[in-house]
Design goal:
Length: 241
């Protein structure tokens, strides 16, 4: 994907996000109401499925929509209780990123184990699709890279067949994206593609363990994937104290 194509898709997604937000605000789509299907939205807006998926993912991360596996995407009920974690908005706040990673370690180590234990052909296919989306990136769009990384982990959470895992990750979505933007932003220039390939290999080890139903290997692969960044953040925090 070249930079101009990525920019154009991002602009189209912003247009869809703005219109869907307006419809939620004015009651066209009321609380608890199911959104039209991807196919219907693509036809209405004249855009591709990736654009619609990106717009819906953004609104989900913003707490406006919620996905119910096998059912569809719905407007969040006004009285739904959602978790909120107020992190520093400083881009270089590695302490906040370390806090997010510590929490993710606890959640995702168990999430990936349940995904390996309860995997199905459909859930493995969905994780593989997210895996392929990340690996197709060329390093030109940091925000897209972070979101694709998050979607891989979210697909694993959905594979647990326990709705609380994906709901919790979605509630933490903005904070996880904050961490991923910081993580991916630490590599520049020629190191960008090398970084993507490294993360892709780590994702591949996780996907392989889930596909084989190897609970211990899945836990180990996720722990290795997350702990490297956590150790790096901790060294930066310690050096600044």
């Amino acid at each position: 994907m070249n930079a101009s194509f990525g920019t154009r898709r991002a602009n189209l997604a912003e247009t869809v996000i703005h219109e869907l937000s307006n419809r939620i605000d004015n009651g066209t789509y009321g609380p608890g109401q199911k959104l039209p299907s991807e196919q219907e939205l693509c036809k209405e807006f004249g855009v591709s499925r990736p654009v619609i998926r990106e717009a819906v993912a953004s609104l989900r991360l913003g707490g406006r929509l919620i996905a119910r596996q096998g059912v569809g995407v719905f407007v969040v009920e006004q009285d739904v209780k959602r978790l909120g974690f107020a992190l520093s908005t400083a881009v270089d706040d590695v302490r906040a990123a370390a806090h997010v990673l510590e929490l993710r370690l606890g959640i995702e180590t168990e999430s990936v184990a349940r995904a390996a234990e309860r995997r199905s052909p459909t859930s493995v296919a969905q994780i593989t699709e997210a895996f392929d989306r990340f690996n197709a990136l060329d390093g030109s769009n940091l925000e897209e890279e972070a979101r694709a990384d998050f979607e891989f982990h979210l697909a694993i959470a959905r594979a647990t067949n326990n709705p609380h895992f994906p709901q919790l990750l979605e509630a933490l979505g903005p904070d996880i994206i904050f961490d991923l933007n910081l993580k991916h932003g630490q590599s520049t220039g020629k190191n960008r593609l090398a970084h993507i390939k490294k993360i892709g290999r780590e994702h591949g080890a996780i996907l392989s363990a889930i596909s084989m139903g190897d609970v211990n290997a899945a836990r180990s692969a996720v722990r290795k994937h997350l702990e490297e960044s956590l150790s790096r953040y901790q060294r930066l925090v310690d050096s600044g104290d």
